[in-house]
Amino acid sequence: MDIKTSIISVIPERPNLSYYVQKSSKNLADLDWLINDLLKFEKSTKKTIIYCRNIVSCSNLYEYFRLSLDDRSESLDNRLIGMFHRSTADINKSHVLDEFQKLDSSLRVVFATIAFEMGIDIPDIERVIHWGGPRGLEQFSQESGRAGRDGRSAVSIIYFSGYDLAKGNCSGEVREFCKTENCLRNTLCAYFQLDTSGYSVIKPDPPCTCCSNCKLKCVCGFCSESQFLGRELDNSSVLDEDFNTGIKRDLTLEQRRLLRENLLDYKECLIEEESELSCELEDFALDHIVKNAPYLLCEDDVISLGLVSPELAADILTLIEEV
């Protein structure tokens, strides 16, 4: 007997969720707008989760906010911010899990890793921020989907750097999602769509409430400024494989020659100091740095060449700026 089966699929579409992407050098000050919110609105600040790629990033952000808020976050019961990752103390984990679910919670911002994911259902979260590009669109969809579960308007924001999008740090689909000039909602839904049977995405109206790309094209006349976007979005500033960003510094042949000599001298110093960083400066790496020097405008651009150490990237950027 033949058994007829049917496939029923539903795209994880969230019409009340607006998507934003922002190219960032990952300067902690990019989130000063949220600190200002906490200082101004305190316990009325919109509930926010900030997902970080690792524990170090999570801890650095938490400490930056803690110092900026001064003594407002010292008392556990009145704390405006919290942190949740696998190494967080049990008492703090329990506090975050218990307090953040309350509608009148004093806890307004949680810095978290993927550990703060399974089994979490808090309906009144209004913002989910990814501090660094997510590793896959499945992870992004699940984490961003924690916002707006009560049906109210909510936002998902990705702050990404060139390093986040480098090969091996995220999927190709995430890289395309962050770089596309097309509608982010359409791009995300197309990834999950199993067929092309005519399903159409329900897009918010006006377009400025859909995503950061649609916002650039909106002509409704009532577009509000997005405080979490530090500058007008410009997708041409996102590094591609050839580092052809359209923004560059002019270097003469003599300056390039001097840069290579300075890099060789720097490498010799690292060798004399028996620094492990010298292993990253092979001849091919030096040539690659010199070739792309006009387009290396921040530390993340240098790291995107394949270097691992932020300390090394900072020193190389200084050498480029000094020629």
TrEMBL record:
UniProt keyword annotations, A-Z: ATP-binding, DNA-binding, Helicase, Hydrolase, Isomerase, Nucleotide-binding
Name of the top EC class for this enzyme: isomerase
Keyword Repeat: no
Listed EC numbers: 5.6.2.4
A GO cellular-component term linked to this record: cytoplasm
Ranges where the Helicase C-terminal domain occurs: 34-200
GO biological process, one term: double-strand break repair via homologous recombination
InterPro entries, sorted: Helicase_C-like (IPR001650), P-loop_NTPase (IPR027417)
GO molecular function, one term: 3'-5' DNA helicase activity
Pfam families: Helicase_C
Catalysis: reaction(s): Couples ATP hydrolysis with the unwinding of duplex DNA by translocating in the 3'-5' direction
Highest taxon in the source lineage: Eukaryota
Family: Belongs to the helicase family. RecQ subfamily.
Protein name as it appears in the record: DNA 3'-5' helicase
Organism: Mytilus galloprovincialis (Mediterranean mussel)
UniProt lineage: Eukaryota, Metazoa, Spiralia, Lophotrochozoa, Mollusca
